[in-house]
């Protein structure tokens, strides 16, 4: 099962500069575990093991443009050909 994963600039050091990589897995969690086998250290930046293995607070993950937090979170199921986008949360503005 091939899943395209779009990588934000800040995490491309883990993917040798690649903007997108392929992975596999039946869920977001399995996909991130699969990515870790080829891109060591990336899972730690996405998943907070101390919080029960949930997505880190300031990481947004989209499955085919749907925020996985409004689906099943890290347990969201995947199918062949899906597209996963990882985006760091951005804060800021003027006071």
TrEMBL record:
Where, if anywhere, are coiled coils annotated? none
Q: Which domain of life is it from?
A: Bacteria
The family database entries (PANTHER family) matched by this protein are listed as: SULFUR CARRIER PROTEIN CYSO, SULFUR CARRIER PROTEIN SLR0821-RELATED
Record organism: Streptomyces albireticuli
* Protein name per Swiss-Prot or TrEMBL: Molybdopterin synthase sulfur carrier subunit
Pfam assignment, any one: ThiS
């Amino acid at each position: 099962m091939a899943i395209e994963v779009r990588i934000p600039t800040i995490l491309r050091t883990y993917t040798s500069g690649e903007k997108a990589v392929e992975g596999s897995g039946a869920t977001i969690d399995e996909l991130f575990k699969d990515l870790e086998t080829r891109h060591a250290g990336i899972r730690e930046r996405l998943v907070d093991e101390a919080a029960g293995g949930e997505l880190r607070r300031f990481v947004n993950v989209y499955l085919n443009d749907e925020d996985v937090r409004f689906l099943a979170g890290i347990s969201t199921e995947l199918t062949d050909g899906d597209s996963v986008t990882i985006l760091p949360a951005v804060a800021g503005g003027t006071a």
